[in-house]
Automatic annotation (TrEMBL):
Protein name: Transporter
Keyword Transit peptide found: no
A cellular component annotation (GO) from this entry: mitochondrial outer membrane
UniProt topology in membrane: Peripheral membrane protein
WD repeats mapped onto the chain: 76-98, 99-138, 179-210
Lineage: Eukaryota, Fungi, Dikarya, Basidiomycota, Agaricomycotina
Family according to the record: Belongs to the WD repeat MDV1/CAF4 family.
Subcellular location: Mitochondrion outer membrane
Species whose genome carries this gene: Ganoderma sinense ZZ0214-1
Amino acid sequence: MRQWDLNTGQCVMTMDILWAISHPTAAPGTTLPAHLFPGAAAAAGTFAVPTPPYADGTWELYQDFVGALQFWGYALVSGSGDGAVRMWDMRTGQPHRTLLGHTAPVTCLQFDELHIVSGSLDKSIRIWDVRTGGIFETLKYDHAVTALQFDTRKIVAATGENGVKIYNRTSMQQSTLLTNGHTRPVERLRYMDRYMVSGGRDSIVKIWAL
């Protein structure tokens, strides 16, 4: 990961995921299971993992990568190919906490002052407590999670299906947007206020009223 000065166009800091994998910042006594995090056992090598199949039966292959990141102020959170969610201090370029729970690469995440929400190829969304680093809640799906966005009321996610999943954080109920929707799995989405935009493997962008 690189931090850039927009005024000069110069890179001012590089944060190395492979270095972070080989220098885990988990709690004392916690180790990275080699069968779940092969990147930790061979940080200098290539970590390739196939996705679980989409609803239409297709597969993809992912290499070492930073699958998601977000920053605010001096705080940066990344999700990477080893399945870990890392919290970084952008003043030093060092990770100060590694959140372990996903068993496949992280593809999307978002955080606010209370929670980090991350999605993964392990077919799950995990909600983390920013203060303790513990898992607050886990949502399971039938296919890989490729995109998400959340607010205080809901989590909206693309989960390898033709519809968009909406999780109500108050009632803890799941619903799916399907009517006049995509004909192949949804890959990306964003929403604002009452409207959502989704892009699918059918090469179509849909605009929804939530």
